[in-house]
Specification:
The complex is a heterodimer. Chain A is mainly α. The longest helix of chain A has 38 residues. Helix content of chain B is 73%, strand content 0%. In chain B, helix 1 crosses helix 2, helix 1 crosses helix 9 and helix 7 packs antiparallel against helix 9. Classes of the chains: A mainly alpha, B mainly alpha.
Chain lengths: 313, 277
């Protein structure tokens, strides 16, 4: 188990290094000139002299590998430079917005799991009954509705019409309900459908037949022998949803005036604020990679072959 | 080939709906009852009526006409994305699978880097690098999805390479290029087509989402995501303006998802496990 964990963690630095190179190269080969954007955001007229000054100040006149290594070295120390627009250090600014986004994406994940597991199990228990049809219907709809539109519909229903929930801002649990539901709906639908299918699959296993022959109650069989095994593919799928949940949070935030990185990043992209774009991409990637690590560890823990140190394959 | 399974009614319905959307995308402007760009400030927020079945928006433009014209923008963008993604996936995955060795390793490491960044974040980053606008959004979505396709193509190529008929062609001395185009490509295309169909909905949500954030299509061009963004400001008093374009996206995505599901079940059940989505 320890060897698996260490091997898994050792994969992370090279991946992040690759992403840093991708980010740096793409921004340099893309159209546009950082010096020009810097002057535009500083509201300095782009004369030749001003451009030359900006280039040397931003270090753009140096050879490309030197620029990259210098940037990487500083980034490793947490220095992503100053935002062209606000002139403040990028990383602290971004980290100021990040907790709100993580809170939202995390709640969406919790909502997804809390609803999809009972729904999926319920559907599997009543295969082909109305319960099953209902859950399958929700699942089909859930993957087709745009999350930002669902957010609007929820606001119409629960804020405008019923007046039960606050339509914007960050605060207590009531503020989280609608955005988390809108973001989590996709993952919820996929997981419910997946758990249903894999419970039906696991229910056909011989160990289940044996458990029944031993005289265990249907409930105990379902809980201990079907549900637990059926959970493994759901864990894998949830790992794949983490990216969707983060992306969903970035979009849905803007509807609820949620003070997260979404609006900060979008305005940086609009302004071509290079340091912010670089920092945003790398920080979100790091969050994503760490979430995937957590999912893999959960997976290893669920799989006894890995848990007891006999490495599978 | 497995025996053909008769399509169930919902699949037929989804197929019809998808056909209607494709027809709208193809003929859109000819079918629209009004000019989707015609501003008529005297008739702002007109309620539903015979000349304007869905009413008019904040500039007095006919909503139905804008929805119809928007089908072309959204679905056209999705088609462009899928063409790019399939082409890139075939090229990179095909090369990696056919050549093997160091080239394979290098190309797969490149894919790994692209797959390390969450898709939506990568698309946002690419727009940051390329600039805003519809063409750049299309490129950005393609650049954030091609690695999935390359990996799947490579897997299919590696599997097909072990088949007896490919071995026979190699023994007969057929050049690698001919083996690829004549023996491997026909086996790669059907599952890839199923995957692409299944992704139409997913890509449409991406296009609409990025346009909704104001990074894609610029007003006044009609596009479903932009229409929702336009309607935001009047949302508290006129929620219907947000409902219609969202409904169009939802129905289109629903139809193409069902169609893709059916196609995938027929062509390649193994693909389901591949993506987990």
């Amino acid at each position: 188990m320890l060897r698996f964990v260490l091997a898994r963690i050792a994969l992370i630095p090279p991946m992040l290094l690759g992403v840093s190179l991708l980010v740096f190269v793409m921004l340099r080969v893309g159209p546009g000139d950082p010096a020009l954007d810097y002057l535009r955001l500083s509201q300095v007229p782009p004369t030749d002299a001003a451009l030359a000054d900006a280039r040397s100040m931003l270090g753009l006149d140096r050879p490309f590998p030197v620029q990259y290594l210098d940037w990487l070295w500083r980034a490793l120390q947490g220095d992503f430079g100053l935002s062209y627009a606000t002139r403040r250090p990028v990383l602290p600014e971004l980290l100021g917005y990040l907790p709100a986004t993580l809170e939202l994406a995390g709640t969406a994940l919790a909502v997804s799991l809390a609803l999809s597991l009972p729904l999926g199990a319920w559907a599997a228990a009543h295969r082909d009954g109305w319960q099953d049809r209902l859950v399958r219907g929700i699942a089909v709809l859930g993957v087709s509705l745009p999350n930002f539109w669902v957010a609007f519909l929820l606001v119409v229903a629960f804020s405008v019409t019923l007046g039960w929930l606050p339509a914007m801002g960050r605060g207590g649990a009531a503020h989280l309900v609608m955005p988390a539901l809108a973001i989590g709906l996709m993952s919820l639908s996929v997981n419910a459908r997946l758990l249903r299918a894999s419970m039906l699959e696991a229910g056909r296993g011989r160990h289940v037949l044996y458990a029944r022959l031993r005289g265990l109650s249907e409930g105990a069989v379902a809980r201990r022998h079907v549900f637990r095994n059926a959970l493994v593919p759901v864990v894998t799928a949830t790992g794949m949803h983490v990216g969707e949940l983060l992306g969903g949070a970035l979009v849905v935030e803007t509807i609820f005036s949620w003070p997260g990185v979404g609006r900060y990043a979008v305005s940086a992209i609009y302004d071509r604020d290079y340091p912010v774009i670089q920092c945003f991409t790398l920080v979100m990637t790091l969050v994503f990679v760490l979430c995937n690590l957590a999912v893999d560890l959960a997976y290893a823990w669920l799989d006894p072959r890995l848990r007891h140190g006999r490495e599978a394959a | 080939m497995r025996p053909a399974v008769p399509a169930s009614p919902p699949v037929v319905l989804a197929g019809l709906l998808a056909a209607v959307f494709l027809l709208l995308a193809l003929l859109g402007p000819m079918l629209a009852p009004h000019d989707p760009l015609a501003v008529d400030l005297a008739h702002r927020f007109a309620p539903a009526s015979l000349p304007h079945p869905l009413g008019t928006d904040h500039l007095g433009r006919d909503i139905l006409s804008r929805l119809v014209a928007g089908a072309r923008t959204t679905l056209g963008a999705v088609l462009a994305v899928l063409t790019l993604v399939v082409a890139l996936g075939l090229a990179v995955g095909g090369l990696a699978g056919m050549l093997g060795g160091r080239i394979d390793t290098a190309l797969m490491r490149l894919c790994d880097v692209f797959l390390t960044v969450p898709t939506f974040v990568l698309a946002l980053f690419m727009i940051g690098a390329l600039g805003t606008g519809l063409a750049n959004v299309v490129a950005a979505i393609a650049l954030s999805h091609w690695a999935w396709y390359a990996r799947i193509v490579r897997g299919l190529v590696l599997e097909l390479k072990t088949r007896d008929y490919v071995l026979a062609a190699r023994i007969a001395g057929a050049p690698r290029r001919a083996i690829f185009s004549e023996h491997i490509l026909p086996g790669v295309v059907p599952p890839l087509a199923a995957l692409a169909t299944l992704d139409i909905g997913h890509m449409a949500l991406h296009v609409a989402g990025l346009s909704f954030l104001g990074l894609g299509v610029q007003p006044p061009t009609p596009e479903w995501g932009v229409m929702i963004n336009d309607a935001r400001a009047f949302f508290w008093t006129r929620p219907l303006l947000v409902v219609w374009p969202g409904l169009a996206i939802a129905l289109a995505v629903l139809a193409f998802n069902r169609l893709g599901d059916a196609l995938r079940d027929r062509l390649d059940p193994a693909l389901t496990a591949e993506r987990g989505l």
